[in-house]
Amino acid sequence: MAPYPSEWEHRFTLSDGVTVFIRPIRPEDEKLYHRFTAAESQQDLRWRFFAPVKELEPALVMRLTHIDYDRAMAFIALDEKTGDMLGVARLHQTETKGTGEYAIIVRSDLKAHGLGWHLMQTLIDYARKRKLRSIQGRVMHDNTTMLDMCSDLGFEIHCDRDEPYVCNVKLAV
Questions:
Q1: How far apart are CA 74 and CA 24, in angstroms?
Q2: d(C-alpha 11, C-alpha 141), whole Å
Q3: What is the largest CA-CA distance in the chain?
Q4: What confidence score (pLDDT) does residue 8 get?
Q5: At what angle do helices 115-129 and 144-153 cross, to 10 degrees?
Q6: Pairwise CA distance, residues 43 & 32, whole Å
Q7: CA quadruple 59, 8, 39, 30: dihedral sign
Q8: C-alpha triplet 93, 140, 155: angle, nearest 5°
Q9: pLDDT of the chain along its 173 residues, tens only?
Q10: Can you say whether the dihedral through the CA atoms of 52, 56, 62, 67 is positive or negative?
Q11: From CA 70, how far away is CA 83, in angstroms rounded?
């Protein structure tokens, strides 16, 4: 397993002036998920996990926080003052060589403050550094905020023929 990539640690200031510490996720972040999930709207959880979610299973939280940095990356956004989890963006290399699949979730009350955009830009920078050819994701068709962001960033967006409620998005990096 690759060592912790501290070179990706950085600070970012939200549009409302809150300073956020962005860093690669670590196993000890497992304890932050319960409070984060409790603060999320049911809609945001459905958009992220493609199903109604009340609480994340401990085994899933463990998989989300214990990653192999050689094959995946997850950037966690933390409130600089409280240490609370504000969002997370992840990128897993797929079986298709040179491609990574992304997922992002931002705390519901922090939408429209620039955090999702910044996390996505961080994933794109990471993908470029890893020399991936593209990143892709699946976005529910009613998640217009995510689809608008993908469009603004130059992602190709296509409706999934087999799952009409899903859009497949892809960005050449």
A1: 6
A2: 32
A3: 45
A4: 96
A5: 50
A6: 20
A7: positive
A8: 55
A9: 688 899 999 999 988 888 899 999 999 998 997 887 777 766 666 667 656 666 667 776 788 789 989 889 999 999 988 999 999 999 998 877 789 999 898 887 778 888 999 999 999 999 999 999 999 999 888 888 889 989 999 999 999 888 888 899 999 99
A10: positive
A11: 26
Selection from 6, 21, 49 nearest residue 115 by Cα: 21
Ramachandran region, residue 60 (left: φ > 0; alpha: ψ -120 to 50; beta: rest)? alpha
Task: Give the Cα separation of 65 and 33 in Å (integer).
Answer: 9
Q: What is the DSSP string of 99-152?
A: EEEEEEEE-GGGTTSSHHHHHHHHHHHHHHHTT-SEEEEEEETT-HHHHHHHHH
Tokens representing 90 are 């992840």
pTM, two decimal places:
0.89
Which candidate, 16, 38, 10, places its Cα nearest to that of 112? 16
- Distance of alpha carbon 64 from alpha carbon 80, whole angstroms: 22
Q: In what order do the strands lie in the sheet with 134-140?
A: 10-13, 19-24, 72-79, 85-93, 99-106, 134-140, 166-172, 156-159
